Amino acid sequence: MSFDFIAPAYRVLEGIAFGSALQRARTELLRNLRSPQRVLIVGEGDGRFLTELLQRYPGAKIDCIDASERMLKLARKRLLRTNPSALGNVNFICADIVRWEPGSVRYDLIVTNFFLDCFNAVALPVVIGKLAAMSSSHSQWLVADFHIPPSGFARMAGCALVTTMYAFFRLVARIPATRLIDPALALHSHGFRQDERASFLGGIVVTEIWSRD
Ligand SMILES: C[S@@+](CC[C@H](N)C(=O)[O-])C[C@H]1O[C@@H](n2cnc3c(N)ncnc32)[C@H](O)[C@@H]1O
Fold first, then answer.
1. Domains and CATH numbers, the chain
2. Cα(141) to centroid of ligand 1, in Å?
3. 98 CB less than 6 Å from ligand 1?
4. What is the pLDDT of residues 99-126, one digit of tens each?
5. I want to staple 213 with a disulfide (CB 3.0 to 4.6 A). Which of 50, 138, 198, 204 is the partner?
6. What gap in Å lies between CA 130 and CA 102, rounded to an integer?
């Protein structure tokens, strides 16, 4: 699995396919977070969420992990261009989250934007369990992802879109997942409950804040 190949074109392709909807989903609930101090962003991509997070919460200290070196380079470059004084707040880590060995830090915010959908039904609960173990007893979890609405035209459109997306990312990034798995069960099992939710594109894209307290 590698997003290196697609990284330089990622933003343009996203714009062609979804306009501004995915960036709105990443940032819609930012203002509702409880002023995070220690943040873990997993699978950040090209830095568009990272820069917005630091604009709103300049005091946050962030560990930003991505398995793609090219994505991380783009994220670093974007931050250098838009908010160079914030560079010292971010620790960029090129690693596979499954193998990464965390330190003793407990994060009060975990962010997984369009990331959990990269994992299959076996790996997803393991990844969520690992991230939950790194989060504090009162932490929040911000998650944006695709979603298949329960019925109607939106469901048909969602199924068609998600199937196409998986075919595309399996081809260009060799992701192991073949279908969308709802992370709710695993999040619940680690003591998180859903606090807020916003949806876009008729419910095909959602963003949620989950909290543990
Ligand atoms: C679909 S992209 C999403 C990027 C970005 N978060 C967004 O909102 O568009 C998934 C990102 O997760 C990274 N990724 C996928 N599997 C990973 C893993 N096991 N460990 C760390 N990063 C991973 C990829 O390199 C890629 O940057």
1. 7-211 (3.40.50.150)
2. 16
3. yes
4. 999 999 999 999 999 999 999 999 999 9
5. 138
6. 10
